[in-house]
Amino acid sequence: ALANIYDRKNERQLSLSTLEEARTKFQDNKSLLFLLIDKYAKNKSYDAIVPIIESAIKYEPENIELNYLAGYAHENANQPVVAKKYYEKVLELDANNYEANLALGLLYLNDFLKEPDNQEFQYYAQNFLLKANEIKPYEINALKSLALYYQKAEDDAQLDRVNLLLNQLTN
Q: Which of 13, 113, 128, 129 allows an S-S link to 104, with CB 3.0 to 4.6 Å?
């Protein structure tokens, strides 16, 4: 309640401090934990989410948004291996989740760009990016990522196809 009062008075730091202090006193309070995670997410404080997100997932292991946020937070904390685990969990729950397919595609694309001879990275990058593109065929980010993938894979025919579509969508 005190945190809400601070929010209404536009005292964001006091609100956050109140929630953090409450969390140290009431570590088993689910609603307090979720409130704190929500506050961190709105402030883009992903490093602060990392140490507490697993506790929240224990309450709701099949929560797609929570698992995605865990992946995103770990990705922003430069922990791509852990991020992949959470994104894969999202896809276990919803194979057609665009954001998780794109995120995994981008992580594997990054790996492939660093290690172009690694066929596993190439395979996963292509599959996840194509799935994201299948889900949202005209989404610019997926198309740009596919273009980068095809350029690195030296697949000129597919690169031309994707670039043509990108040009149509951006003009």
A: 128
